[in-house]
């Protein structure tokens, strides 16, 4: 599939906890070890994540994650708090805290992202962004990369519709 025909897949399982933690669950067709590499290796992250990293995220310690929007890059401090290969990756990114849990599910992986957001009004926007990023990551893992979809460009790939759909889903919970 080429980038011009890329469209987001079905909505993920999602909920927002009272602590403003967005819980986003996706099923991937690849084993945890392969998913782990996509979450930690700078070259793989560059192919799907909303940021670029200055180092491998598979070990604890300080890092810099730079949000990318077109030709602009916005570095933010990060700290990898836990890196239990290939099951748990937890780090801060600016004021946010992300926890990636990988659970083997047959030949695939259940990926659970817990992303503490600044408030409930940010949950649907955050879910829409991760939805697109993880759809792109799934393509990368499948060997059919479409390239990263970041920043304002996400609007060309259904971000607003995803945001509205996640807002509706989160309001029902």
UniProtKB/TrEMBL annotation:
It comes from the Bacteria. Residues 30-136 form the Activator of Hsp90 ATPase homologue 1/2-like C-terminal domain. InterPro entries: ASHA1/2-like_C (IPR013538), START-like_dom_sf (IPR023393). Pfam families: AHSA1 (PF08327). Belongs to the AHA1 family. This is Uncharacterized protein YndB with AHSA1/START domain.
């Amino acid at each position: 599939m080429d980038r011009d025909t890329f469209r987001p897949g079905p909505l993920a399982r999602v909920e927002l906890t009272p602590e403003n933690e967005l819980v986003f669950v996706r099923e991937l067709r690849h084993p945890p070890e392969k998913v782990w590499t996509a979450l930690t290796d700078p070259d793989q992250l560059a192919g799907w994540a909303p940021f670029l990293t200055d180092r491998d995220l598979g070990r604890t310690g300080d890092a810099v994650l730079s949000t990318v929007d077109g030709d602009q890059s916005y570095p933010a401090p990060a700290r990898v708090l836990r890196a239990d290969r290939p099951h748990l990756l937890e780090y801060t990114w600016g004021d946010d805290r992300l926890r990636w849990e990988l659970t083997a599910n047959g030949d695939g992986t259940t990926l659970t992202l817990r992303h503490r957001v600044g408030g409930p009004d940010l949950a649907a926007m955050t879910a829409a962004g991760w939805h697109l990023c993880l759809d792109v990551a799934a393509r990368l893992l499948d060997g059919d990369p479409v390239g990263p979809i970041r920043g304002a460009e996400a609007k060309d790939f259904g971000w607003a519709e995803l945001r509205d759909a996640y807002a509706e889903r989160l309001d029902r919970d």
